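agent> fetching stored inputs for the NAP docking request
agent> found them:
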Amino acid sequence: MKQLQTHKKDLNKARVISKQIDNDIGPGEVLLRIEKFSFTANNVTYGVAGDTIGYWKFFPAIENLDNSWGCIPVWGFAEVIISNNENIEHGERVFGYFPPGSTLIVKPTNVSKQNFIDGKEHRKELPRVYNNYVRINAERNYDISMDNIRALLFPLHITAFCLCDALEERNYEGASQVIIISASSKTAIGLAQGLAEKKDTPKIVGLTSKNNTQFVKNLGCYDYVISYDSLKDLGNELSVMVDMSGNQLILSSLQKFLGNKMLKCLTVGMTHWDKSSTAEEALAQAELQERTEFFFAPTHIQKRYNDWGKKGYNEKTTIFMNARAKQSLNWMTIKEISGLDNFVQTYEEIVSGNINPNEGIVVLL
Ligand SMILES: NC(=O)c1ccc[n+]([C@@H]2O[C@H](COP(=O)([O-])OP(=O)(O)OC[C@H]3O[C@@H](n4cnc5c(N)ncnc54)[C@H](OP(=O)(O)O)[C@@H]3O)[C@@H](O)[C@H]2O)c1
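agent> prediction call returned; pasting tokens
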């Protein structure tokens, strides 16, 4: 068994650990061989919020006596190589949440033709959407050529869908502009594209680094694109902000500039995690606290599951995701990396913010 592990107190430090283990699995359990996974700034945030939200708990690190190492969860595909579960077939493939490693043992419960939930004891208290595995064999219109895009964009654009839906439901908080911070991130792009196809939306303004400005403009889904060092170009009007950056300096400047015209700030991510001291501070420091709200996609997903039922939820999200996947062919190039050892350098680059926004990293195992 092989795992890429991250030092919990210093995300820049990673190591690859190999250990010979027998493939003994318990009754009802299934051994999965992980085929491939994606890696973006979102995965870095899983590490940043590893303790606060509990992301370190999903996949315990091996050879980790002092508990200083953790596995940052990733999204990808795996194949069943041993099954002790009468409902799960040897050789079938699944899509879901994995450690960045070679294998994972799950204990399928709530098994249907379409999916199952990993019922391992240590995952029970964790958000259910992360414990769900989609069974590929049962998928209608499954297209293997979309696997990489799905691994990359599903977790991000499901959040983009939720944000579009929540903003529309709240009538954009009465704002005349939606300001999206860290506009070059894949989650932000999905959100801007989703808003752009709706009718009667406020102006969509993207804030990004100077280097990424042209890329973001070329996407064509933002009405205005402004770099972080030109915030004075922003219109001083009623605004709702969607923040993917967690950058306190930018947030404070915006709040000072907009004053009471900042109606609401939805805090979604921390792409600029290294510019703030801790996850808690990034989420809590905002000056206008009562107008700041942490947006956690799994909570919104659960709400819409209850409102629309599974079928209604699946129909709406599938339409959204397919549209975004098709658009991604125009802006995202997939870069495949073979093996965990070869991925370490790219991991370090992503953690240090050296990210090419038009690139999607997929690791093949
Ligand atoms: N709350 C939720 O449920 C939820 C769900 C999904 C995603 N998210 C969050 O959404 C955010 C975006 O994730 P993603 O995977 O879409 O990102 P991504 O595509 O990998 O983002 C790349 C962009 O992030 C910025 N960036 C990344 N690291 C940086 C650093 N160290 N310093 C400065 N800028 C950095 C840059 O954008 P700019 O130059 O434009 O700033 C860069 O172009 C993440 O923080 C993620 O956690 C939250």
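agent> quick read of the result: The CA atoms of residues 251 and 260 lie 14 Å apart.
agent> awaiting further instructions
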